[in-house]
Amino acid sequence: MTKNTVQHDTPSANVAHNPSAIFSPYRNYAHAIEVPPGARTLYISGLNGYDATGETLPGTFEEQVRNVWAHLGAALNAARMGYGDLVSLRFFLTSADFDPANVDVLAEHLGVTLTARTVVVQQLLDPMWFVEVEAIAARKD
Hints:
Layout: E1 15-17, E2 32-34, E3 40-48, H1 61-78, E4 86-93, H2 99-110, E5 116-121, E6 131-139
Parallel strand pairs: 4-5
Antiparallel strand pairs: 1-2, 3-6, 4-6
């Protein structure tokens, strides 16, 4: 297994809730995610778009967000989890114009997995960063 390979051996026991009293959910989005008792929880710090060496920052949003997903995969693998175990994602984008591409790349990685998700548009710590992502994952072994 390479360091960025994310395992999807067993489906997550997390349950998405999209009550009819709330507007229809967006793509790969849930209004709420229930984590079962006894699940392990992983909190992933804000990850930016530098490559794995931390030395090269690509010049496009799509390259940066793909690096972020590789970093997410590595963090999940370290905890014996996969993308399907993600329960919450918080995206910080420097422009709302990046959101359609962000959702496309997110859907490539999540497949049918639904997550609670927030997208914030703001200036980031380094003006060359276009994206930063925090995540929470949970898995019942």
